[in-house]
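Hey,
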Amino acid sequence: MTDPSDQRLFFLLQRAAHQLRTTADQRFLDTAGVTTAQLAALYAIRDRPGGTQGELARRLEVRESAVTGLVRRLTAAGLVARDRHPDEHRAVVLELTDEGRAALDAVRSELDRFNAELRAVLGEDGFTRTAEALHRLVEAAASRDRPGDSPDATA
């Protein structure tokens, strides 16, 4: 059991993220044959069909080398199709296949159940407040990474 007086927020966020991702990965693999990382990529491709791997890397906020392997696995599983970019000879565009859309449909009810379980643990207000706080943390971290946004930047 965890100590409720433990205020090491970064450590707690890491532990929670790991445990939630491990649980979600297993449930989503059992339901639709995809991990949370693959699911994020499928949603991103669905939302911006015809995007490049570089664009996908930026949307997922990961290195392009990580997306290369991810796209290779999704393509091998028949969930994503790669095609030549119409203007850039070294780039490829990404599209969901019918199997990719089916995987998103299959995982939807499990994703809803997973979120319902989190709502039950946190309560509706706690769920909403936690999501808002996490968005603020992501934005604060991102603004420190952008040139000119740091407190030390001079005009």
